[in-house]
Amino acid sequence: MSTRRPVGLSAFQNRTSLSTSYATHGATLRSTHVSSLQTQLSVFQSLLHTFALSHAETIKSNPQFRAEFARMCNAIGVDPLAGSNVRKGAKGGKGSWWAQMLGGDVNDFYFELAVRVVEVCRGTRGENGGLIAVGECKERVQKGKGIGGGMEVSDDDILRAVKSLKPLGSGFSIVTVGSKQMIRSIPKELNTDQSTVLEAIQVLGYVTVSMLQDNLNWESARAETVLDDLLSDSLVWVDAQVREKEYWSPAFMHDAEDT
Amino acid sequence: MSKRVTNDSQSLYYKYPRSYFFPPFFTLQPNTTTRNAQFEKWSSFILSYCRHHRIWRLSIIDGLDMPLFHNSELRKRLSLHDAREVVDWMTRQEGSERAEWIGKEGEKSVAWIYWRRPEEWAEVLGDWVEETGQKNTVLTLYELTEGDSTLSAEFHSMEPAILQKSLNVLVKRGKAQVFGSEDQQGVKFF
């Protein structure tokens, strides 16, 4: 023990004043920190604002640029769609961040896109059982029909549009099957076996009962049940013009073609 | 599967729809929902194919050997029974009556394929008359569909029977009058 402990009443006094001064100092530090951060943030926001304004046209028209911009916003914790369900002017509400930045155009862009996504999903439900690849959905939106034609969009836009539907409790969600992101437009969960089979189809192009037996060590009854379920949910189509029935997924029609 | 298009003697390239390269497309699906979506797809494919190749009447049996019902690349073929089902669906209201069986009732072997229905053809004819100023002139039915003056018109080389149906629509509306005997029929538009 090299240091001598202070003893006596004055020591208590000392200790209290010491801790108070530490506390005050800490508070000062913290407040300067906060205020400097606030300045930084406001500077940054105004810069972002300027950036958004001066590039508004590009953001609206160029899907790649839009995606990068959205990614940048996300990275610094600004969710472009946060509060997007609050309309401008309603109860003096401020509207979403994008709406403020870009006069509502970009915001409206996502709503419009969301409507198209819903249209595509509903329109193709009969053939794909409410499971569509993001890429295919994009393609169909881009083709568009009717007046106005298609929209120039990226996968990222589609994902964002689907997310913007969330407050509606619409049952639209993004699910991942194997390596692919898909839009599920029916609020019905796929069970593990079903997802496994869909994944297998994604990799192999199609499956048969015996393929499932060989690769997954499933009993034939199990394989048949899963396939029948998928069939009755319109998630797979059957090709009966082969020795053993082949099951294909319309959601991966795309990939099979590209290769 | 690199070749997306097949060259046909008749005309330029025809781009097949994506589903044409999806093997299960050629097996009618057991699930009703899926099957309806499938009918829908077959119907629009048949219509666009026939329009492109100017097929007015389709014999199911002949169709089985055409690329229409037979994808030689995939070695898939719609069966006779299924092809008939598809066309039958097209003749019904769900299929927007885009086809009509010819011949005895229940025979179901040859059908008119209406990529335009007679009422729609009537519109096209009416517009053509308007545009070319043929009102109150008399034209023979032959020159209407086979004459040089209609070479670029969509209804050129139209089947006489469909022409008759379409003209009947115009007659009923009081916009045309058909006269003459069997081979030498003429029409006057108002």
Q: Order the strands across the largest sheet of chain A as they lie in space.
A: 1-3-2
- Major sheet details of chain A: 3 strands, antiparallel
Whole-number count of domains of chain B:
2
Shape of chain A: elongated
Number of helices of chain B: 6
| CATH 2nd-level architecture of one domain in chain A | Orthogonal Bundle
Largest interface: A-B, 21 and 22 residues
Residues in helices of chain B, as a percent range:
25-40%
> Can you tell me the CATH topology of one domain in chain A?
Arc Repressor Mutant, subunit A
Q: Radius of gyration of chain A from the CA trace? A: 28 Å
Give the strand order, joined by hyphens, for the main sheet of chain B: 3-7-6
Order of helices and strands of chain B: EEHEHEEHEEHEHHEE
Q: Report the principal-axis shape of chain B.
A: elongated
- Poorly predicted runs of chain A: 83-94
Run of helices and strands of chain A: HHHHHHEHHEEHEHHEEH
Radius of gyration of chain B over all CA atoms, rounded: 19 Å
Layout: helices, strands, pairs:
The complex is a heterodimer of chains A (259) and B (190).
Chain A: H1 9-54, H2 56-61, H3 63-75, H4 97-102, H5 105-123, H6 125-128, E1 131-133, H7 134-143, H8 155-164, E2 173-177, E3 180-184, H9 192-204, E4 206-207, H10 209-216, H11 220-232, E5 237-239, E6 246-248, H12 253-258
Antiparallel strand pairs in A: 1-3, 2-3, 4-6, 5-6
Chain B: E1 5-6, E2 14-15, H1 32-53, E3 57-59, H2 60-64, E4 70-71, E5 76-77, H3 80-91, E6 99-102, E7 110-113, H4 118-132, E8 138-140, H5 141-146, H6 160-172, E9 176-179, E10 186-189
Antiparallel strand pairs in B: 1-2, 3-7, 4-5, 6-7, 8-10, 9-10
Helix pairs in contact in B: 4-6
